[in-house]
Specification:
There is one protein chain. The protein contains seven helices and ten strands. By secondary structure, it is of the alpha+beta class. The radius of gyration is 26 Å and the shape is elongated. It starts with a strand and ends with a strand. About 20% of the residues are buried.
Length: about 230
């Protein structure tokens, strides 16, 4: 692999080899360390690059393995794209623009859908009926067991027991009951490590004097694959 070299990237030191840095000869690093491009050094004699130091970890690991593996919950994809573009590492740019999940193949996404349907009327009680539905698209056993045991006071029943999908419905109930139930559900789901990925509201007119409003929340978390 040759003698190691040390890079100072934005104040963060990295040790690697010339062969790793020149893995992609047409990249900026490949050109630099072939000697075709002037290089700066810091006061300690380390090669200096004025870029994002923490993100260079992922750049360097990609040069070492040709695989992009990011930690769970990685939220700096846009910044990493800018770094990949700066270093002109074409295979890494393609990986970051690939619509497939950027996480390692031994992970998958657990999804929980929470929705509330309200039927509103201009001429009677403002909220005639509310149905709250919770759909778990993967079998999160702790969450299923908790809902079955913790929400005993709510009128609920299980709708669907297909593989990798289970649905509960709560209600019908009035507005105050629904708000209380929804708050409890959202807090309970969040405590299991899920975060809200998307929210949406949909209005559906049924008749001149009545309409239906649907509120939807999507919760997600990443989890390791397990053998059934």
């Amino acid at each position: 692999m040759g003698d190691p070299v040390t890079l100072n990237v934005g104040g963060h030191l990295y040790s690697t080899s010339i062969s790793t840095l020149t893995r992609y000869p047409d990249s900026m690093l490949g050109v630099m360390f072939r000697g075709d491009f002037p290089t700066a050094k810091d006061s300690q004699g380390n090669y200096f690059i004025d870029r994002d130091g923490p993100l260079f970890r992922y750049i360097l690991n990609f040069l070492r393995t040709a695989d992009l593996i990011l930690p769970h919950g990685f939220k700096e994809i846009d910044l990493l794209r800018k770094e990949a573009d700066f270093y002109q590492i074409e295979p890494l740019i393609h990986c970051l623009n690939d619509p497939k999940p950027l996480y390692s193949l031994d992970t998958f996404e657990e999804v929980v859908e929470l929705s509330s349907t309200r039927k509103l009327s201009k001429y009677s009680n403002p909220v005639a009926v509310i149905i709250t539905q919770l759909t778990i698209t993967t079998k999160v056993y702790a969450l299923l067991e908790g809902i079955s045991n913790y929400f005993t006071k709510w009128n609920k029943h299980m709708m669907d027991t297909r593989d990798f999908q289970v649905s509960f419905t709560f209600g019908p109930c009035d507005y105050h009951q629904e708000v209380s139930l929804r708050v409890y559900l959202m807090e309970y789901i969040a405590k299991q490590g899920f975060t809200i990925r998307m929210t949406r509201v949909h209005h559906m007119s049924e008749r001149a004097n009545e309409n239906t409003v649907e509120h939807n929340w999507t919760f997600c978390r990443l989890a390791r694959k397990t053998d059934e």
